[in-house]
Amino acid sequence: MVLALAKEIAMRKTESDGKIETIYFGGGTPSVLSNDEINFLILEVYKNYKVVENPEITLEANPDDLSAERILELSKSPINRLSIGIQSFYEEDLKMMNRAHNSAEAKKCLEEATKYFDNISLDLIYGIPGMSNEMWRQNIQTALDFGIPHISSYALTVEPKTALSKLIQTGKIAEPQDEVASNHFMILVEMLQKNGFIHYELSNFGKENYFSKNNSAYWLGKKYIGIGPSAHSYDGIKRGWNIANNSLYLKAIQNDELPIETESLTISDRYNEYIMTGLRTIWGVSLERIKNEFGSEYLTYLLEQSQKFVNDDLLSIENNILKPTPKGKFLTDGIASDLFYLES
Hints:
Layout: H1 2-11, E1 19-25, H2 35-48, E2 50-61, H3 68-75, E3 81-87, H4 91-96, H5 103-116, E4 120-126, H6 133-145, E5 150-155, H7 163-169, H8 178-194, E6 198-201, E7 204-206, H9 213-219, E8 232-234, E9 238-242, H10 246-254, E10 260-264, H11 267-278, E11 285-286, H12 287-294, H13 296-311, E12 315-318, E13 321-324, H14 332-339
Parallel strand pairs: 1-2, 2-3, 3-4, 4-5
Antiparallel strand pairs: 5-7, 6-7, 8-9, 9-10, 11-13, 12-13
Protein name: Heme chaperone HemW
Family: Belongs to the anaerobic coproporphyrinogen-III oxidase family. HemW subfamily.
Main location: cytoplasm
């Protein structure tokens, strides 16, 4: 698989017309790669693309993948940022979510990681049934006590046909409640902002100079290339996705074929994506960009549709930028859907 990834990297070098700013090892279990394999793939990127002087190079991993020995090994590689899927520091939560690690492993992992890495992000889940506000505060405080500079936090979602959905269906645990998730979200925002974090995207908080450059590029509509099975790409006009099946992916690459499907986005598609991502960030939606990139018709439509949310103090317009108010932040995704332009 590693050789196929390297070959795809080379096959797609003509798709980049600028410098690579970030390299992200994510999805699946990238932490199973050895240092030699990581170094090999990064070298292939450098061989085939122009790369900025100090790119952000992130490895996504779970605590059970990150032993003390593995963290030490990674510190000797070009990886300079870790994104760790902690989810919770409570044993009962981890069991309910069917996580492979336990609470002790989560804490030990961060204890070791902070010895060697300055730039660390962790994930926390809120809105978990049975989690009191005080328990949620303690979850956040535990992350703060480790000095973590970036936190991504998401509401618990229940996917069909999962162990969690079966527990809910059989009444063994309660169904997640929107009110609980909303309260947890407000606590999260308050605690992290008091501790010097900037709420720069709906689900992401970072201290100054610790925003995720990789994810920020996506939210700002920059181009990106995804390598490997299921990877997604975007060139500003088209969106593409690689085939998910490993065997079919490998066969295509061996035959010098790119295993990718693409779709061209209409102007309305691109407008809707900008609204969806822009409203989630501190950069908001630029009314000037709407007019210049999409036209006066879209600007007029946006202003008309957003007025009711401005009146309800859920959106504000300042310096030609449309943003959610503190009251509207938790409702951002729902608000954005009401601003989408639907083609007739």
